Amino acid sequence: MSTSGQRTHVPASPSWRARRLDPDRSLGLRLTLAATAVFLVLVPFALLALLVLGSWPPLHRLDVSVAHHLHGYAVGHPGWVWFMTVWTNVFGPGPLRVAVLAVVVWLFARRAPRLAWWAVTTMAVGGLLGALLKLLVGRDRPELLDPVARAAGYSFPSGHALNAALAAGVLLLVFLPYARRPARRWALWSAAVVVTVLTGVSRLALGVHYTSDVVAGWLLGVATVAATTAAFRTWRTRTGPPS
């Protein structure tokens, strides 16, 4: 009670939802948006994985139909097979990891150790998740007469599509701050999208993956980059700028 006999008004504390969406609370807002993005990507990935595990007939028919149509085209177009083979080798998991490793060394040289460790963590986590899911799902690769290419191991998710999404995301986020001109930013975005998409398409064109394998690899890669980026930003905000 105040001296005038009137109650002192105590402003109500904002709700959890209001705090998370408040632009003035930048960390909470960024984490909320990042968590939402990860959730929105993981939901279709989880649904796709369940449909593959359950051998859902419509998805199975779609996968088989696309695989056979693309195989028929590849058999009659050796030049297309050559181009897809070169592309899938140049932008395979091994070369992309080497490219990211070179960027990591560059980041350490520029005294950006946290960003370097984020890049390493993103590639490692995504790669381990992909390998684990291949074993858990245990899906065989397409069986085609007169195949134009062969690949070992299980099929779901596509390791090439996954690592392309991981590497493209890492390199994009590392170099975007250096691209101050809009044209350069568009070039970086375009390169990231082309590498990611065409690498996945190359696996379909060569008949070593189903469509759902490639889409799952893309989704898992995007989700991993979003999750590690959110964790990195939280760490950076709480511990201060890198030394």
From TrEMBL:
Enumerate the InterPro entries for this protein: PAP2/HPO, PAP2/HPO_sf
Residue ranges of every copy of the Phosphatidic acid phosphatase type 2/haloperoxidase domain listed in the record: 112-229
The organism's superkingdom is given as: Bacteria
Can you name this protein?
Phosphatase PAP2 family protein
